[in-house]
Structure formats: structure tokens, C-alpha cells
Design brief:
With about 170 residues, the chain is mainly alpha-helical. The chain has 2 domains: about 15-105; about 105-170, no CATH class. The chain is about 65% helix and about 0% strand. It contains 8 helices and no strands. It is globular and about 50 Å long. The chain starts with 14 loop residues before the first helix and ends with a helix.
């Protein structure tokens, strides 16, 4: 039987977790905009506005406590996760996504995934200070740190002119 209420106490503020995760998100967004829209001012403006809007809405939802409300169905956090999933597919399958895949180099697409390495280090710290469940870090069940390190190695290999085999890419 499920409990009727869940008591959630916000954790103490930790600047490494807050600015680390937020800073990495901003850096990845800026890298994406620079790589994909540096030659097209209109595209850069649209992409910047979209990224700013998504980040502002999600930041407001987190800071206002909306995402910590689990007493309604569906909980707002579930709606946010579902909307990120839907937006990812919609953008990836749109003309915008097809253009990005066609215009960006294979090395750049893989290199962008390297953000996972520092992010996982910050998330591990967040789990150590009690902000995030340990299951979401590499001490628990999340091994995205391997994806981030792999992206760095594959990116370095591609940029140095080495060929990367299909089997290495599939394993990654």
C-alpha cells in the first residue's frame, strides 16, 4: 500500500552541487549553440531563446518548490521528466534535429557527450552530501561516467586522425 503523503525536506544548499550541475548545463547549451548556429544568426537567436526558456521554466519550478510536490497525481516532477523526453524526441526528429545531425561532425556529436564525466563527479558529490540519492550516482546504479570518459577518449581519437571501429562505437 502506498503512503497517502510523502514528507520531503529540502536538503541544505550546497554550492558545488548547485553551481556544478547548473554550470555544466549552461556550458553544454552554449557549446551546442556555438557548434550548430555560429554561422546563422537567426538560428542562434531561436536556439538561445528556446534554451533560455526551458532553463528558466525548469529553474523556476525547482526553486519555487513545485517539483518537490508529490501529493498530487501526476506529480509535477513526472510531468517535467515526460516533457523533457517528448521535447528531446520532437527536436531530434524535426528538421532542426536532422540539420544538426547532418551539419555537425561525428567527432563534435560524440565530444558533446563528454559533459557526462564532470557531471557525474558533481552528482557523486551531491549524493555524498545527501542532496541526491546514491542510486543516481556512480556509487549506485548510474554508470554514465563511463559514457563521459568514453566520449572523451573517442573524441580525442577522432580529432587526432585515428579511426574508431564500429565495434568500439557500439560498445560505447
Amino acid at each position: 500500500m502506498l503512503p497517502t503523503t510523502i514528507s520531503i525536506v529540502p536538503p541544505a544548499f550546497d554550492p558545488i552541487s548547485a553551481f556544478g550541475i547548473g554550470g555544466i548545463a549552461v556550458l553544454v547549451a552554449v557549446a551546442w549553440i556555438v557548434l550548430f548556429a555560429r554561422r546563422d544568426g537567426y538560428r542562434a537567436l531561436i536556439l538561445s531563446a528556446a534554451v533560455f526558456t526551458v532553463m528558466a521554466v525548469s529553474s523556476f519550478a525547482a526553486w519555487s518548490g513545485i517539483l518537490a510536490q508529490f501529493n498530487s497525481f501526476p506529480p509535477p516532477m513526472l510531468l517535467m521528466i515526460a516533457s523533457v523526453f517528448v521535447m528531446s524526441f520532437a527536436i531530434g526528429l524535426s528538421r532542426f534535429g536532422r540539420d544538426a545531425a547532418a551539419e555537425l561532425s561525428f567527432a563534435a556529436l560524440i565530444g558533446l557527450q563528454a559533459f557526462r564525466f564532470p557531471l557525474e563527479l558533481v552528482m557523486h558529490h551531491a549524493s555524498n552530501v545527501g542532496i541526491m540519492p546514491v542510486q543516481l550516482s556512480y556509487s549506485g546504479y548510474n554508470f554514465d561516467i563511463v559514457t563521459g570518459v568514453g566520449a572523451l577518449l573517442i573524441f580525442a581519437g577522432l580529432k587526432s586522425g585515428r579511426s574508431v571501429t564500429r565495434s568500439v562505437l557500439w560498445a560505447w
